[in-house]
Amino acid sequence: MAILESRSLILIGFNTDYQRLEVEEISGQWNVYDFRMNFILYFLCSKLMRFNLTKKIVTNYYKYRKKRLPISNYKVIVTDDPIDMYGIHAFEKKDVKVLMRNSVLGDDKLLSIFSGYSVYSFDPKDCEDYGFEVMKQFIPCAEKIQEYCSDKYKVDFFFLGLDKGRGVYLNSLEKKLNDFGFTTKFLVKSPPIGFFQKIDKWIKGVPKYKMLTYQDNLNNVSECRCIVELVQEGQSGITLRTLEAMFFKKKLITNNKEILGSEVFVSNNILYVESLDEIEEDSIRNFINSPYENYPSSTLKKYTISENLREIILRD
User: Fold this and answer.
1) pLDDT band at 5, cuts 50/70/90?
2) What is the fold, at CATH topology level, of the domain defined by 143-295?
3) Where on the phi/psi map is residue 188: left (φ > 0), alpha (ψ -120 to 50), or beta?
């Protein structure tokens, strides 16, 4: 602990709503400097990407912020935000830790930017392919779970995610569960593309184009009996949906084969299915009605952001 207490954390790229929850949780345990660009500068940088000016602007911005720091002993935690990630060039490599939140999927530009830095990823395959260091998936708000917990179920099964070509599959799954007599809430979203879809979003209010906040997601999770997860090809490792199920004490149906044999797999809590054809009414009903097995607090602790950052910093 003495090592941690003598250091401060500079956070860069923690911009999404769930990352703001992470900042709040981290701030209770470290001396945090939350570096964020204002909206206008961030928007400007996003529009200048095609002219190769973004790297220079972002780097100089964070160099300016660094000069104004009242400390000299710190670690910089950078996410793979498409704009803020250039901020790493304002700091010495030895001080930077990169958190890869998404799978690389062969993104040469991303790999080039982070070359030579300590990069940590949730994805075991990316770690193997690109030499990243493995870190556990973590839930953003472990200390605030009770604020979202509800004892009242509104639906049996809940899904939230982007279409990404999975819409037909998810519609079939929802219909099958409904035919079994279960209630469902499947929110399959699609970012609006082009002028007319944006009109549908902003003027007509078409539901599939309206993105939910992470807080909305947590409220939905708290009001269901079971979370449905459908991972995409190439995705590996324990997912955030799995952790939401664990921390909220919900059942989970998933096609994530990586979960089998892991410490989080408990047959009463998690049902692995490879395809729709495997889902039968009796097996689903037996699963959903079986008693939930609580995870030890020592297991849950491993999947908090505070514990993960502590391990990453102590690896020096």
Assistant:
1) very low
2) Rossmann fold (3.40.50)
3) beta
